[in-house]
Write the structure tokens for this entry.
Amino acid sequence: MKHETLDQKKARRAEVARGKIRDRRRFKLTPVPTGEGGIVARANAVGTIFPSRVFDVTDEAVLKDGAHNSKIGGDVLVGRLAGAKIFTLTLEERATCPRSCAVWTECYGNAMPHSRRWKHGLAFERKLAEEVADLCRQHDKVLIRLHVLGDFYSLGYLGLWKTLLERHRNLYVFGFTAHRLDSALGAWVATLRQDTNRFFVRHSGYCGPWGSFVIDFPTEKPKLGTAVVCPEQRTAMNGGGKADHCGNCGLCWAGDTPIVFVEH
């Protein structure tokens, strides 16, 4: 048998994995967006309204299998990242977010009393780096959703993601940030996105390239102007059918087209 190079072995393993990709989500039903807001926090709130759900890091993993989240999914089923394992990270809303966030008081974390939020800081960052390294050794591709709740809370923390992307060539990231493009953190997000082509973080409240924004009404339209309505939400609003989720959609990391989300 001809000797395989490392790249050929990885390609063969990826081909085998693609044949075994399946939807591993524990739950398939997702909430139907109505355009109506939920619980509203006080205007002077500086953290979650569920402080008992903020935890110091322990031996428990801070990165959770996306299969536990019906909207995200545990595996990428389509596109160039097919076969990637998806993991999610949840921090404390508002405590890690810029005050400029357009939905500061209406954050959908207000309706998530059971979510485990990790207390940010150096201990968390050390644990995160260890887990990313372990996952990247175990899987051919790792895709991390930042942040189910929370945001980039410092230049140092964003710098950690830069380091992790440089260290692990099979690491990919997608998510959203409320840091504006004209801020130091927001500008660095844009630079990291451009320089790596593996960091697909969008700017919330922005209608331009790599933007996303929220509307307060349901819609059956697939597009509003140049922006695409989130396919997962559109499926839910149209009564279900095809089980759209991040893993079988890929829109968030496919390109710079702005995305519309319906308030929920």
